[in-house]
Amino acid sequence: MPDFQSCQRKQIIYDAFALVDLYIKNGDKIFDVPLWKKIQTINGIIDEKYDAAPIESCLDEYFEDIKLSELLKPCLITAYDIRRRSTHFFGQHDYAKKGDGYDFYVKDVCRATSAAPTYFEAALIKSISGVSYPLVDGGVFANNPTLCAYSEVRNAKGFPTAKDMFIVSIGTGSENKEYDYDKAKGWGAVGWIRPVIDIMMSGNSETTHYHLTKMFLAGGNQNNYTRLQPASLGNANPDMDDARAENIQALIEVGIETAQNCDDELDRIVGILMEGEDKIEF
């Protein structure tokens, strides 16, 4: 059992190192594909690539029966409801505190927001009141959820504007694949499936950064928004399911290098955060 937890009931905190360890220790189990699974799904072409049991077991171990409403800090977590065909936002600070109909177990929220299409089957989870929701990863519409966070805070108590906020957006790095025109011009529906998903997700993230940069710049508050993003992934494979020990080590090195390259900006961020307590109320 992990030596850290994150709820008011148990008053133990998850720190960043522990969250990194969650992936390091469990990544190879979560993204393990037995030979029979590869054959059965034709390596993920006709069914999801990975069995959900390992990730569900991991989430159950780490989060037990902690509820969204019990988290210590305000949060906004994205998912998409494939039955209702609508975005679904999990919020500790607002929705979850309205009652059991808006509250969920944290392990189910994590399962829903990580249900990446083609990787894991859609998550069928229930609110504390017992209502079912079939959900997939919120990255399908908000691969960079910073604009969602801005809108949420904009509607907080007192309706703060950009001059009252300080946003730190942290990217995971990207290696945008180039697509050859001579090949792409002949693609049909099958040929475009993977490229269009890749383009939509990276384009979504880039558009969000563009909008926020312009929004903060318009009021002269450009120093209130910053995005930290690795300049390069180096030797790391960007595929999120590559949990090989050597790839995890390469990703750790990317993180260390990025922190070193952003040293001055990180010092500025820490300085701002230490100036005083958060004054925004939800």
Task: Characterise this structure.
The chain has 282 residues and is an alpha+beta fold. Helix content is 40%, strand content 11%. The protein has helices at 16-30, 35-41, 53-63, 106-113, 146-154, 181-184, 189-218, 245-261, 263-273, and strands at residues 76-81, 86-91, 123-126, 132-137, 167-170, 225-228. Helix 3 (53-63) packs antiparallel against helix 4. Residues 1-8 have low confidence and may be disordered.
How would you concisely characterize the structure shown here?
40% of the residues lie in helices and 11% in strands. By secondary structure, the chain is of the alpha+beta class.
Features:
two-stranded parallel ribbon, alpha+beta, single chain, four-stranded antiparallel β-sheet, about 280 residues, 6 strands, about 40% helix
Number of helices: 9
Mean pLDDT, all residues = 86
Shape: globular
Radius of gyration: 20 Å
Class by helix and strand content?
A: alpha+beta
Unreliable parts: 1-8
Order of helices and strands: HHHEEHEEHEHHEHH
Please outline the major beta sheet.
Answer: 4 strands, antiparallel
In whole angstroms, how far apart are the ends?
Answer: 33 Å
Helix content: 25-40%
Share of residues in strands: 5-15%
Number of strands: 6
Strand arrangement, major sheet: 2-1-4-3
